[in-house]
Amino acid sequence: MTKKASLMVAGLSILLLSACGATPDQVISQAQQEANDMTESLQIIQTNEADLQTDFETDLAADKSLANMAEGGQGETRANLIARQDAFETLKEDYENLHNQAATLKKFDETDFTAEEDFSNFSEMRNLVLTVDEQMAGYVENYQAVLDAENDYYQQLAAEDSDLTVFTDGMTGINSQYQTAQELLAEVLPNLAKLAEDPEA
Q1: Which keywords describe this protein according to UniProt (predicted)?
Q2: How far apart are CA 165 and CA 171, in angstroms?
Q3: How many Å is the Cα radius of gyration of the chain?
Q4: What confidence score (pLDDT) does residue 198 get?
Q5: pLDDT digits (tens, 9 = 90+) for 17-71
Q6: How would you label 41-76 residue by residue, b for 16+ Cβ within 10 Å and e otherwise?
């Protein structure tokens, strides 16, 4: 093994040891930070969702061919989609971190605490993290499908053979997927907000 490879392995070992050595409180704090970060990303997504109808109407009025909605287009609708996709990528990274923290929390038990009350408080927070992890998984999977469907729809609208059927059927499909995403988000938001609360507040 080369010196460089040895150092890389040693560095990885240190990281693994550091991760394994995290206390329950530290992991909970990390999960709370991820919840805060995910909340910020969701706010960006929701702000752009609220603007989407106006952006779509602006593009429709500016370019009847709707070429500005296609990939590479400079329209407001395309910019809106890109902004949401970027925020969603950040959300997914934060969610993956929280998912890993949820897995770590499952490894702790009563033997890691000196007082029964401390474990009881930890157990309550752990259950909250696990709930957010499970609920957010559904939203993340669904919302990526929403973004993909939107992208495909805008491409179809910009095509030369696009017609009213493409317009109405595509809109109906996206609205259905979007509604599902909103229902999933409504489930997770109360628990996400609770997890993101500053414990010192």
Answers
A1: Signal
A2: 10
A3: 22
A4: 61
A5: 344 578 999 999 999 999 999 999 999 999 999 999 999 999 989 887 788 888 8
A6: bbebbeebeebbeebbeebbeeeeebbbbbeebebb
Q: Tokens in use for 72?
A: 């590479």
Alpha-carbon span 201 to 6, nearest angstrom = 45
Domain ranges, ordered by start, for the chain: 24-196
Helices (H), 63-115: 76-105
Query: Mind listing the pLDDT tens digit for each residue in 83-136?
Result: 999 999 999 999 999 999 999 999 999 998 988 889 999 999 999 999 999 999
Q: Give the torsion sign (CA, 73, 77, 83, 87).
A: negative
User: Residue 23: what pLDDT?
Assistant: 93
Question: Identity (one letter) of the amino acid at 179?
Answer: Q
Q: Under a CB-based contact definition with an 8 Å cutoff, are residues 107 and 52 in contact?
A: no
Q: How many residues does the chain have?
A: 201
In the chain, what percentage of residues exceed pLDDT 70? 88
CB atoms within 10 A of CB 15: 10
CA distance 162 to 56: 16
Q: For residue 121, how far is the Cα from the chain centroid?
A: 27
Is 122:108 a contact under the CB 8 Å cutoff? yes
Q: How many CA atoms lie within 13 A of 158 on its CB side?
A: 21
Tell me which residue has tokens 């990939």.
Answer: 71
Top CATH class of 24-196 equals mainly alpha
Tell me, what DSSP letter sits at residue 198?
-
